[in-house]
Amino acid sequence: MLVLGIESTCDETACAIVRNGHEILSNVISSQIDIHKEYGGVVPELACRRHVDLMIPVLQQALEQAKITLNEIDLIAVAHGPGLIGALLIGLNTAKALALALKKPFIGINHTEAHLYAAMMSLEAPVSFPCLGVLLSGGHTALVLIKEIGHYELIGQTIDDAIGEAFDKVARMLDFPYPGGPKIEKLALEGDAHKYPFKAGMIKGQPFNFSFSGLKTAVLYRLRGLIEEGLVDQKVKRDLAASFQKTAFEDIIKKTLLAVEKYQIQTILFGGGVTNSQTLRRMFNEKATHCTLVWPSIGLSLDNAAMIAGLGYHHYLKRGIGDEMDLEPLIRIPFNLLEKP
Ligand code: KG4
Ligand code: ZN
To answer: Nearest C-alpha to atom 24 of ligand 1 is from which residue?
Structure first.
């Protein structure tokens, strides 16, 4: 079964062709970082306009790379949330127009759930359930018990900033453009992670929830103090980045391992843009030696359409029917709606 995936939830316009849920024939991603970076974050109106310009060229490229024509597609899978409303509309309306014109089914996919599916696509053999999903992106931070594809239980999530958002905000404080995660990781490589003893948030009675807002503010106050003293140079920035990154990642690892113990987990699946971090992967590899760690392969950590197409295949097989033309874009999708009937 050939599935066309369409992704336009935020600042990436992406199309992919995936066979039978895992064989990626093409995975084209057009990033808009160039237009958003000077604003320190994604500007929704600019993102929508760019999606309009890029959607058809990206689709054509995905078809060319996969060496197939539109008529050969069996299903169209589109991320219909969570995301920016205008951005979602471009992808969703493209999917609906294609479905009408080609007389093919289309299916709406939850972008967040697709991030959790991305790591499974890189596996040769099917994963054995239940396993733990660790979702670390610009919009989400969550620990999810994956009972099977389409069947989840939310164990913990952030009560304020998402982890990627915290990286982006700290990078901005240090005068680096959006997206800040990769820059913080690079700076931290030469920094002293023990220089500033920060703390991540612990929520009383909620051992699996996260809070990064206080950590971010602690970095800001420390930076302000150093600016007042005229002490900020490249070394200070490297040390702040390294100390912040270490604190945030150690908190994620600690809470993940607590969940591993409580739920007797053997396999951890990672998803979301922050899992692109080689530092995070190394730190997890060192600490979680008793678990099988499954990371998304190259091109599947950050927003992409291959994960949408891959998950679309499974949901369509399960349901045997596509969505109706009145499917709406959803800005937010609570985790309890992750499970489809
Ligand atoms: O999953 P994603 O592409 O978009 C969302 O669905 O949010 O994640 C983007 C986020 C950004 O916040 C970016 O700064 C972060 O992933 N990120 C990183 C790294 N690479 C990307 N954060 C930390 N270290 C990295 N190497
Ligand atoms: Zn994402």
So the answer is: 181
B/e letters for 55-73, b = 16+ CB within 10 Å, e = fewer, are: beebbeebbebbebeeeeb
Handedness of CA 214, 203, 284, 114 (dihedral sign): negative
Question: 153 CB contacts (<8 Å, ≥6 apart)?
Answer: 144, 145, 147
Q: How far is the CA of 153 from the centre of ligand 1 (A)?
A: 23
> Is the pLDDT confidence value at 244 over 60?
yes
The mean pLDDT of 130-136, rounded to a whole number, is 97
Residue nearest to atom 3 of ligand 1 (CA): 302
Tens of pLDDT along 294-323?
Answer: 999 989 999 999 999 999 999 999 999 999
- In this predicted structure, the answer to whether residue 341 has a pLDDT above a threshold of 50 is no
**Protein residues with C-beta less than 5 angstroms from the ion ligand 2:** 137, 303
Q: Are 9 and 111 in contact (CB under 8 A)?
A: yes
Rounded to 10 deg, the angle between the 234-262 and 181-189 helix axes is: 110
